[in-house]
Amino acid sequence: MTSWWWGVAAALLANVLYSTGFVLEKRALASLPPLSAGRPARVVRLLAGSPLWIGGCLVLACGFGAQLAVYRTLPIAAAQGLFVSGLVLLLLLSSAVLGEQRSGRERHGVAVITVALLMVVASLHNTSEPISRHASFGVLMALCVPSLAGGLLLYWTAERKAGRRHRLPTSGVAYGVAVGLLYGVSSLAIKGVAGLLSVSGLPSAVLALAATPYPYLLVVTGAAGLVLSQTALQRCRASLFVPVGSTINCVFTVAGGGIAFSEPLPTDPLRLILRLGGTGLALSVLLLLPRHDQPQQAHTGRKSLHEAHGI
């Protein structure tokens, strides 16, 4: 099996692990008191006391390991096109396990993403594109710092709007975009860590990583993402919040990663069309998703949350 097939297999495994982990966390969050991003210490304490949530977190950690393998074997644009395909499994699991109802547009999105996955995989056939291991520090910071600030500002704005009365129930789009920006920065850091894993010997690898911004970006995005994503995931349908976040993550990682790591796109016209077309098709699913839940869906979600708390 060629190296790119190993990358495809690792990406599909990461999709399974990430989707399963998010669904387990969402199920655990239903039995917890309402979380607030303004009280991060309380959020961490409540999450740490839930065995089911910890189980979901461990599954996500395994997905992180698979993601490292992907970035070592595939160009960043191809990797993200494959990761977005995991939305299909997430939508299926959220419906089967969480009982979340999917709209007609979401069902159409599943079909579109499946086609996009096949296009991206086809673009990898006989590929010879170089896989970059390092990013320019200045370019990386110029991309990451404004994105982190923008994500936090957008989340804060969504929180303020959510607190207003007489407004449509949120579907999670704004939260998904905000968290997607944070995890987009995290994806670039993971790409950098994967490139430095080739350093021989663990001590050498640790020293090399400490001299880069990658571990520090992971700490910042990990801490902020933990509180913000779990608070939003408790309030919103996983079948909408996670796809939006994943899509924004993909957009940022493909665009920013291609610039920061200087990875070229395929030169063959057919493979270029398949790569860009498949990734663009996957991203177009964001336009199909509703911005607000239907009143019945919102009522059902609130009723389930109240029942979980014994109200």
Report on this model:
It is a single chain. The chain is mainly α and 311 residues long. The protein has one domain. It has 14 helices and no strands. α6 (104-123) packs antiparallel against α12 (269-283) and α7 (137-162) runs antiparallel to α8. It is globular, with a radius of gyration of 19 Å. Residues 295-311 have low confidence and may be disordered.
Blueprint (SSEs and pairs):
Layout: H1 3-29, H2 40-48, H3 51-73, H4 76-84, H5 86-97, H6 104-123, H7 137-162, H8 173-196, H9 202-210, H10 214-235, H11 238-260, H12 269-283, H13 285-288, H14 295-308
Helix pairs in contact: 1-3, 1-4, 1-5, 3-8, 4-6, 4-11, 4-12, 5-11, 6-12, 7-8, 8-10, 8-11
Query: Secondary-structure element sequence?
Result: HHHHHHHHHHHHHH
**What is the helix fraction of residues, given as a range?**
over 70%
**Binned strand content:** under 5%
What is the chains' assembly state?
single chain
Average pLDDT reading: 79
Uncertain segments of ≥5 residues (pLDDT<50)?
A: 295-311
> Given the structure, what is the number of helices?
14
Spatial extent as radius of gyration: 19 Å
Total strand count, please?
A: 0
